[in-house]
Every structure is written in C-alpha cells, then in structure tokens.
Amino acid sequence: MMPTEIQIPRKLANQLLHLAQQSANVEICGLIGSQEGLAQHCYPINNVAKHPQQHFLLDAGQQITAMSEMRELGQELFAIYHSHPTAPALPSSEDLALSAYPAALYLIISLSTKGILEMRGFKINQESAQEIPLTLIN
C-alpha cells in the first residue's frame, strides 16, 4: 500500500536544499536513513557521473559505507535524493530506468524555479513514478 503522504523533518529538508544550493551547477546526491519510519539522517555521496550537470551516479564505495553506517545505527534506507540544477523536480527517463530500490522514496530537488527551491518525493517501481506529497514537520 502506498503512503498518502511522507513526513520530512524541516531541519533535514533545509539541509538537502542547502546542499543543492552549494553545488548549484551539478546534481548532488545521497541517501537518507530513517528510524521507525521517520527520516533522520542525510548521507551526502559524491556524484561520479561523467556529466554531473545532467546526471547522477552514487559513488559505490561511499554508498556501501553509508548503508553500513545506517545498519550500525539501526536505520533503514528511507530515501535516495538528488537535485536537478536546470530541470523540474520530476523523475527523468534516466531516473526511472536506473531506479533500483522500489521501497525507497526518491527525493528530487529542483533549482530551476526562479528563486524558489522545490523538493518532491516519488515512489518509483518498474520505471513508473507515483508522487507522494511531502509534509514538513518540526
């Protein structure tokens, strides 16, 4: 059953938006760990794509390290995030084709909205995306 909304702590959302603004010309990426279903910790991972301005590819070693840290802390993979410097916060055809974790939320941050940052969440399964509304909590 698909959740009707996902709660994201405001502090975590602000951290993701800040990371995207710091590297506004390339797609940032990383993982988010959760405990008891609540997103708690951001694990930034280097984007090793050939063209990081238009694509993202998580550094495999850093991804393994982040997932190990999550396990040690009793966390589960909650979300995979990345930014779109010049495109809307919608999954690209490449995002759909390369998604490998159907249980995870895919968070996309757009920097292409004139002065307003946009972040949207999607469940992606078999190259099909369903948006899940995000609610910020304190």
Short description:
This protein has helices at residues 10-22, 60-72, 93-98, and strands at residues 6-9, 29-35, 38-45, 76-84, 105-110, 118-125, 128-132, 134-137. With 138 residues, the protein is of the alpha/beta class. The strands form 2 sheets. The protein has a 6-stranded mixed β-sheet, sandwiched between helices.
Give me the CATH architecture, please.
3-Layer(aba) Sandwich
**How many distinct helices?**
3
Structural class: alpha/beta
CATH C-level class? Alpha Beta
| General shape | globular
Strand content: 35-45%
Q: Number of domains in the coordinates?
A: 1
What topology, given as strand order, has the largest sheet?
A: 3-2-4-5-6-7
The chain-level mean pLDDT equals 93
What percent of the residues sit in helical stretches (DSSP H or I)?
10-25%
What is the name of the CATH superfamily?
Cytidine Deaminase, domain 2
CATH topology: Cytidine Deaminase, domain 2
Give, in order, the helices and strands: EHEEHEHEEEE
